[in-house]
Amino acid sequence: MSEAQEVTIYAEARFALEQWGIWSRTAGPAPKGAISWMGPIVDRQIGQIVDDDGRPVQVWEDAACQSFDEHVMTHIRQHNPPAFMALKLYYAFPDGDDYRALSKTVLAKRLRVSRVTAIKRLEIGESMVAAMLAMAA
Question: Which of 78-81's residues contact partners 24+ apart within 8 Å by CB, and which partners?
Fold first, then answer.
């Protein structure tokens, strides 16, 4: 895998986690007019064909993110609980603006670990998501 492909997969993983975080926090319909690219990621992951017109999928709050949660996040939750908790607290933080992420210092405080440990757990979780998305591609 080239370095450019690796950067793209990590960016895709972070974007998928951001979408999942919004879905986790709202537990309801997306904001009016919101568009998600999560649907095509999940469709590719579970082997469904995505339309050739490249249209964004607008049902992020139900099928797409629920599928991502059931497949990817459940795997991480079962196999690496510390990484899952870091992802949950960083991307699906319990309160605040939907488009804001916690600082890594606040993440460390919420995890009750050092900042270095918190960052390492977050990176491991992001790497696990990226690896699963790369395998699905």
Answer: 80/124, 80/125, 80/128
